[in-house]
Amino acid sequence: MAIMIDHRKEAATRVQQLLTGWGCLIKTRLGLHDGVLDNCSDVGLIILELVGEEEKHKELCRKLNLLNGVKAKYINLSFDEQ
Fold first, then answer.
1. In what helix (H) or strand (E) does residue 8 lie, and over which residues does it extend?
2. pLDDT tens, 47-61?
3. In the chain, is it the N or the C terminus that has fewer CB atoms within a 10 Å radius of its CB?
């Protein structure tokens, strides 16, 4: 799943609370934003590697998209089995 957060300083707390509540589905989490120290960007990107049921992944994505300033996209990447 990819999650874009606009106005990171305002939305980050709500996103964090939601991700914590669904934490058992999250195997890996990577957070990215430009800048450091006093020059941090206000837009961030979170990449999640999820485990468990796809329907729960989609529900988490739906809930994230209900948050103001947050856009989430569920992505299912796999190699074709031969």
1. helix 8-21
2. 999 999 999 999 999
3. C
